[in-house]
Amino acid sequence: MISLTQDGGLWTVTIDRPDKANSLTPEMLEDLCRIAESAQDARALVLTGTGRVFSAGADLEAARAGLALSPLWERLSGALVRLNGLTIAALNGTAAGGALGMVLACDLRIAVPATKIFYPVMKLGFLPQPSDPARLVALVGPSRAKLILMAGQKIPADEALAWGLIDRIVPPGDVLSEAQALAADSMGATPEHAAAIKALVR
Predict the structure, then answer these.
(1) d(C-alpha 15, C-alpha 99), whole Å
(2) Residue 88, phi-psi category: left (phi > 0), alpha (psi -120 to 50), beta (remainder)
(3) What is the pLDDT of residue 69?
(4) DSSP 3-state assignment of 191?
(5) pLDDT of 52-86, one tens digit each?
(6) What is the C-alpha separation between 24 and 56, in angstroms, rounded?
(7) Which of 124, 129, 99, 122 is nearest to 23 (CA)?
(8) DSSP per-residue codes, 30-48
(9) Phi and psi for 167 in degrees, rounded to 5?
(10) Nearest-angstrom CA–CA distance, 97 and 170
(11) Does residue 72 sit in helix, strand or coil?
(12) Angstrom distance (rounded) from CA 183 to CA 13
């Protein structure tokens, strides 16, 4: 349910469970963690999904069984943040719940127009993953972060773009090609050069 394709230094990771809105099981999260942790030599890593939803977050049955509190979410977002290559969340649709953590951990976020961003932790009675609020605040500020985390608002793509929560809206069907275009300069640079620039931006 998690697939990886490698084209030179470009790694494309796809969440492939469209019949369940690409909701994540513990096994899928483990796979994502292993891929992110093994991608130190990747020039660029793209995260995307199949179907109309990027990911609805945790599988509800698994969440009730404890996945909502799993350290795997932090392990995944931390591994993504530590990568020296360019990381891009190519949102083929809505990103919700715990799946938002990996999106926030990426360097860039692009999305199709139908995308919505939401994180219903208040409604569901969970806390967000520890690193997610700070990353969200860094992008949109504290008030807008509270709109998402405390007021439970679903933020459409155009509003998310205006806030800086996503970086570009692309036509449906073009999200992967746009991600590849954005990765082109990093793909053409030496790993050391890319890592040096990323360290300066950090």
Answers:
(1) 11
(2) beta
(3) 86
(4) helix
(5) 999 999 998 888 888 888 999 999 999 999 999 99
(6) 8
(7) 99
(8) HHHHHHHHT-TT-SEEEEE
(9) -105, -20
(10) 23
(11) helix
(12) 14
